[in-house]
Amino acid sequence: MFRLFKLLKPYALSVAAVFILVFFQSFSEVYLPNLMSDIVDVGIVNGDTAYILRMGGRMLMVATIGTGCAVLARYLSAKIGVGFGKILRSNVFSHVESFSLQEFDRFGTSSLITRTTNDITQMQQVTLTMLRMMLRAPMMCIGGIIMAVSKDAKLSLVIIIAMPILVVLIYVFGRISMPLFKAIQEKIDRLNLVLREVLTGIRVVRAFNRVDYEKERFDEANLDLTGTTIKANKLMAALMPAMMLILNFTIIIIIWFGGIRIDNGYMQVGDLMAFIQYVTLIMFSLIMLSMLFVMIPRAAVSAGRINEVLDTSCQPKDAEQVDGAVNDSGYSRKSPCPVGGEQISGAANAEDKGLVEFKDVTFSYPGAEKPVLSGISFCAMPGEITAIIGGIGSGKSTLINLIPRFFDVDSGSISIDNVDIREMPQEELRSRIGYVSQRAVLFSGSIAENIRYGREDASDEEVRGALETAQAAEFVFSMPEGLDAVIAQGGTNLSGGQKQRLSIARALVRRPLIYVFDDCFSALDYKTDARLCAALKKETSGSTVIIVAQRVSTVMGADQIIVLDDGRVAGAGRHKELLDSCSVYREIMSSQLSLEELA
Amino acid sequence: MNAEQKEKGHFRAMRPGGGHGRFKRAPVEKAKDFKGTLKRLLNFLKPHQFKLFAVLVLAALSTAFSVMSPKIMGKATTELFEGMMAKYKGIPGAGVDFNYIAHILFVLGALYLISAIFRYLQQYIMVDVAQNTVFRMRSQINDKLSRLPLKFFDAHTHGEILSRVTNDVDTISSTLGESFTQLVTAVVTLVGIVVMMLLISPLMTLLVCFVVFPLSLILIKFITSRSQKYFVQQQRVLGELNGHVEEMYTGHRIVKAFGREERSISEFNDINEDLYDAGWRAQFISGIIMPLMNLINNIGYVVVCVVGGIYVMKRAITIGDVQAFIQYSKQFTRPISQTASIANILQAIIASAERVFEVLDEPEEMPDSADAKVIEFPRGDVRLQNVKFGYTEDVTVIDNMSIDVKKGQTIAIVGPTGAGKTTLVNLLMRFYEIDAGKITIDGMDIKEIKRGELRSIFGMVLQDTWLFNGTIKENIAYGCEGATDEEIVRAAKAAHADHFIRTLPDGYDTILNEEASNISQGQKQLLTIARAILADPAILILDEATSSVDTRTEVLIQKAMTRLMKGRTSFVIAHRLSTIHEADIILVMHNGSVIEKGTHAELLEEGGFYADLYYSQFAGGDSDTQAATAT
To answer: Is the pLDDT of residue A576 over 80?
Structure first.
């Protein structure tokens, strides 16, 4: 947790200033009783009204200066604390933005959101509280002890004995209660989990008539949570009274010994009164410190979660010597791709065509025993449609996600126009690709803005054209605002099919060399699908198109079909060829078509 | 604040972003019916009334004792002062009467001890009361949820409901006990202190009251009104920031694919800067309340010192009383600010309680009639007779539908995405009640069958597979309590799930994580099929999902489904042509209603929507009939 505070460096001066201001504030606080004792010991004893008034005036002045310091300190600490949150938030966010999908998926979207928002707010709050209260407590303690010793060193012994007792008490309580509060948090999470499951599966729960079972599960979690909460709170119920008791008994002892010392003429009554006030100030500071026990564990959890994010280094790094110019002769040209007996060779031919080649690619997700893809080799030619088909877990989506380098291959290589994609800067690589994901993602903003996400300088004409091709023009222009119609966050005001078509348009407007469609036609009805395919074919005729698809109609028309089975290529070729040669392909086809249609 | 208003208010006034817990709630929330809700909340506490009474008494006593102590302590100081003054003036034999002081200190010690014990007891009991109340509240909501009709769950997001059971109950849980005792303590303290101060010196009391009271009130009012503005602004910007983060993270893949990281970061930094601006102002302004209150306190302190000093000189008051007065005046502001914050907390509690009660007040599922029947050995004949149904009163989605399904027949439900294909499921399983007509199973009206029994006649494999956080074994056995391991494995084998289960690190004991993301969508589907197989239902409801499950394993799924369907009446939300071909009845749905009904051949002949749909799938894209747009 304290590691994160290194980020406070730009505020070092302000932090130092807060220390000094808080010191003065605390000092003024403990100085007041001192003046009061003068009123008693000098003013009252001598019957000097003028003196009393003068001292009163001085007290007001000290109090005002103290408050001034406090206000200034709070001003600075507000800036420091909130500034700390700002820096931390910005660091975390830009770090996460640099994550590849591999790191991203390790945390999960919702977890990353919480880490970027709630956890940081939590840290900010703790920093603020620390600057405000935790800093003041030790200063008050020290100031109080200094004043006490200067009044009467011997009597101060009482404080010096009482303080450790209080500290030990707070420590013991903290040690016992901290794990309990942690457990409470876990049990709340558990309860939430159980309930969320029931809510998401309400139909299943009822269909299987398991309402009572779920109720039991909930009650169990509920009872468990309540039990621990009661235990923890009962423990904490004793802390406050115990601390007050120690404080009060310290005062009693001080009066007794103070009384003796007054009787012997070593001390004056005003001093004793001041002394009692010091003790109160010191002890209350300690009690304030005990609040740390509530805050620190929670903050430590947040800090840990933030650190986990910051400590995750991004996997695919740009190759070091990359300077942006991809087709410089410095790069090694890999062996050209043999397709259909024809060899495409020489830099001139391959330059900026969008030839995608997989060479013996093997990839496994971290921690997995088996690779998802192994020994994949194929070529996707410019001007052709390459369709990828296969069963669950056959690695289709993974394969396609390797092309924009969302993940890096374990062995083998993927190259575009004979340049290994790991040797290109990621930006350069991705600028060549028009990617459409499986689940359409749109951002809040107008439709035009969303389409221009593909290419910022696309003209209205181009945007219109892309919408046209993507079969989205009709519904877009039937909306009263047309291109300026606003998409809500998460695209909730559009249907799944509409979102998919817009995300296709977004890729189209980019006019890339390579189109990557990750199974993005699933939410379209058959007719739109067919029309879209026909339009796409025209639009993308010069580009390399790689499609993961499920519908027979989409796959059948492809120039090349790659059949994946369990992470390996089970067959490649055209529809008719595969029907004859590839049993896996036949199996897939027959699941969708009846026999007459196959013929 | 009347009943009608409450009725209408149900679930309308959700706080923005309710439930996700991501957006912090606005500083102060107002309840709609403060009094009524408070009354109900107190009713909730009723079983604990004796304990509550004890808490009240203990709190009052404990506070009273601690209020008395400064006055008593003052006596010791006075005695010391007098003794010393006497000595100072040289009166022979004068000195401090230590017996007297010892006596006072002893009394003081006893007071402190009793006060501490009482305070501890009071909190100890209160913990029990508060937590048990919350426990009951949580279980009541949960019980209630199990009796609510599906309509409720379809109309409210999970986040909304979750937030009521957790966030709202938590608000009540963490503050109910504390604020109750604090309120008692604050009131007793305030009254006690004023009484003690008046006893010591009415004039000084008035002085202190005139300085401290109005100044504090003005200050609090002034500051909160200013800081509120910044807090609201902060809240708004925070919402904006959270929205941006949520959006960018959800679309991470797209942001990367289109190389827009820089843009996203710079936009984030802009919002972050705004947040900083509003944030530090809000923190600063609210942060100076404490020091300023302290200043007011200190002014009171100085007044007491000066006036008290002069009074002592004039012998109008003892020095011990001045000391006591100082202590009182220092404590004086605490109950004031405490009650202010309790008032806020109470508002929040009531607002939360109101939301909880709203759930508890929702209309429940029609209870099973007392003579509800059980079909011992269901065959699976299903009949719909003139069924009429609509989700809302004014829109009828099924009108006068009659179907006669014999045991073992297959009914295919087809239509574009979002055409409302789950409606029939909702009706058959009585998740929703039909408006008119009758649905019978084996000749018995489903309204006369016990809900649980009715539902156990059905087996369900839906597209959104539902698995819970437990082992695979437990998940398969979900539909059939007390299934043996052997039966589970047999079901898994029949569902073609056995193979992949065995490749998982812990096999059947593999624990599915929270989102069940450690297995693929298709594997989940296979598990739900295994679950249905094990449950061995007479009637099946299947969703031949395609969007997330595909091709090769779909073959496995199809095989498993076909095996499952054998000999059972099946309602299939169909995507596969073969299924549709072979179905005994096809129901075509569009825009939420059943628009056509018949066999494949009949429907083609009819040349309606179905025929259109059917031809468009394979006929290419140049048909100019109106496309069935997905809704």
So the answer is: yes
Residues A91, A136 share a domain: yes
Mean pLDDT, rounded, for B483-488: 86
Q: Is residue B381 part of a domain?
A: no
A139 shares its domain with A169: no
Judge if B191 and B89 occupy the same domain. Answer: yes
Residues A500, B271, B283, CA angle at the centre, nearest 5°? 140
- At residue B27, the pLDDT reads 41
Name the residue among A93, A188, A209 with its Cβ closest to that of B166: A188
Nearest to B209 by CA among B325, B322, B332: B332
Are A441 and B123 inside 8 Å of each other by CB? no
Banded pLDDT at A336 (limits 50, 70, 90) = very low
Could you tell me if residue A553 is inside a domain?
no
Give the mean model confidence (pLDDT) for residues B550-577: 74
What is the span of the domain harbouring residue B532?
A: 468-536
Which ranges of A201-268 does DSSP label H, i.e. alpha helix? 202-207, 211-263
Q: How many domains does chain A have?
A: 3
Q: What is the pLDDT of residue A438?
A: 77
Report the distance separating Cα B185 and Cα A104, nearest Å.
51
In a domain, A452, yes or no: yes
The residue of chain A with its CA nearest to that of B419 is A525
> Which A residues, 30 through 69, put their C-beta within 8 Å of a C-beta on chain B?
32, 35-36, 39-40, 43-45, 47, 49, 52-53, 55-56, 59-60, 63-64, 66-67
B215 and B243 assigned to the same domain: yes
Supply the pLDDT for residue A345: 39
Query: Strand B593-598 to strand B585-590: parallel, antiparallel, or no bridges (unpaired)?
Result: antiparallel
0.90 surpassed by pTM: no
Q: Fill in the DSSP letter of residue B449.
A: B
Residue of A nearest to B319 (CA): A40
| pLDDT at residue B192 greater than cutoff 50 | yes
ipTM value: 0.78
User: Is residue B227 located within the same domain as residue B186?
Assistant: no
Q: How many CA atoms lie within 13 A of A577 on its CB side?
A: 12
CA A280/CA B253 separation, integer angstroms? 59
* Residues B119 and B244 occupy one common structural domain: no
- Nearest CA to CA, how far is A319 from chain B (Å)? 17
Per-residue pLDDT band for A553 (boundaries 50, 70, 90) equals low
Q: Chain A: nearest CA to B365, how far in angstroms?
A: 12
